[in-house]
Structure to design on (379 residues):
């Protein structure tokens, strides 16, 4: 039986992870859960799975949950609560389904504790990929991708030697506004931006898909997970989201991974790797689909992706700044404070104001992250 700790259990990835658990109850035991502010949902989950530990964002929320928890379940809160969920139980695997760079300390704690990481929380690798990967290697900890593109690449690379990889191509659906020109983006609403054509996901990643920042974060995520150069990473628009990504080898052979867009496939693969099992998902019928479409990425249309490549290539503190500025810009857009196109303007301005420097410790990452947040909150 695999013991699972789940960070972000009430979110899109979190609930789909629990759905996988429900389909294979003999194989998984949920030992720890964490959520932000959705107390009622967390209480329901705790009574169903009876974990030893749950955590909420604040002490108030934890106090509200406490009387309703099963007798064997302890409740924690805040950053320390997240760290405890990630590292203080006997979990074998930690699913990081929390949003944003706030997942970093808990992920590092899980690595210290020798837990396998099923990584959905891409912001952690973007903001501190060099530190996370180095420590995981030192501790002999596997970081298994949950993101569909990275799971695809992982599956394509199975058993191949790194030297034989020519390029990796991340496919991009194009997000909510893929059929609009830049001029047509001026007055778009939050509601329109949240309406993703292929995937039902948390609010932040849905906005990131519309700005193409999500693909930018994924480019950096791929760099760290697969140790490829930025010149080897390509992005291709593929509106159907059937080919989840592919690898081209030195002999020009291309290996791709296909399936209907359903996150439960990559989530489960991270849980069962290197094994495979049936999933509660629909099979792909290519004859029924008939056609797949592809278009070249347009970096004028999606300048935030171009900026992501620039920040990735600059390295050091630049990706931390890109990620933190984006987290704030997206929150401001979702609050109705700024327009959609202001997200990328804010990103560019915060990156322009930043003097790139070395970040060789988590505290340094934290400091730069806070600086970028404070600037992004004002511009
Ligand atoms: P979501 O917003 O649906 O869920 C986020 C979870 O984090 C919720 O359980 C929420 O309660 C919890 N949370 C929020 N604030 C918290 C806090 N202060 N302390 C503790 N927990 C807190 O997000 P999501 O779409 O599930 O995405 C989660 C991560 O997975 C993101 O990094 C995203 O980029 C990545 N991801 C998501 C998808 C997807 O299909 N949703 C696909 C690929 C990668
Ligand atoms: Mg993805």
């Amino acid at each position: 039986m695999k013991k699972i700790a789940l960070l972000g259990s009430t979110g899109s990835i979190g609930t789909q992870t629990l759905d996988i658990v429900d389909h294979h109850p003999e194989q998984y035991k949920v030992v720890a859960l964490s959520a932000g502010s959705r107390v009622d949902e967390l209480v329901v989950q705790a009574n169903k799975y009876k974990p030893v530990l749950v955590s909420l964002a604040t002490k108030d929320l934890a106090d509200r949950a406490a009387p309703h928890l099963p007798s064997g379940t302890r409740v924690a809160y805040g950053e320390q609560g997240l760290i405890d969920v990630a590292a203080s139980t006997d979990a074998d695997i930690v699913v990081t389904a929390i949003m944003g760079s706030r997942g970093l300390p808990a992920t590092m704690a899980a690595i210290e504790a020798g837990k396998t990481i099923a990584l959905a929380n891409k912001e952690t690798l973007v903001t501190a990929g060099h530190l996370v990967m180095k420590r995981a290697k030192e501790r002999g900890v596997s970081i298994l991708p949950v993101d569909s593109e990275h799971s695809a690449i992982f599956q394509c690379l199975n058993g191949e030697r790194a030297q034989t990889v020519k390029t990796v191509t991340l496919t991009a659906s194009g997000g909510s506004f893929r059929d609009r020109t830049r001029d047509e983006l001026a007055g778009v609403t939050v509601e329109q931006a949240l309406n993703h054509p292929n995937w039902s996901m948390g609010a932040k990643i849905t906005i990131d898909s519309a700005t193409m920042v999500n693909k930018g974060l994924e480019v950096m995520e791929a760099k760290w997970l697969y140790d490829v150069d930025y010149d080897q990473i390509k992005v291709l628009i593929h509106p159907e989201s059937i080919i989840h990504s592919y690898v081209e080898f030195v002999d020009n052979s291309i290996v791709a991974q296909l399936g209907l867009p359903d996150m439960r496939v990559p989530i489960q693969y991270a849980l069962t790797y290197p094994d495979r099992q049936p999933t509660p998902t629909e099979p792909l019928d290519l004859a029924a689909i008939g056609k797949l479409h592809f278009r070249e990425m347009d970096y004028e249309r999606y300048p935030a992706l171009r900026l992501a490549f620039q920040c990735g290539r600059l390295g050091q503190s630049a990706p931390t700044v890109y990620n933190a500025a984006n987290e704030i810009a997206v929150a401001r857009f979702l609050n109705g404070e700024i327009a959609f196109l202001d997200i990328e303007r804010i990103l560019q301005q915060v990156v322009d104001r930043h003097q790139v420097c070395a970040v060789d410790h988590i505290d340094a990452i934290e400091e730069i992250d806070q600086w970028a947040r404070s600037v992004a909150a004002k511009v």
In short: The chain has a mean pLDDT of 97. The pocket of magnesium ion (ligand 2) is lined by residues 147-149, 218 (CB under 6 Å). The chain has 16 helices and twelve strands.
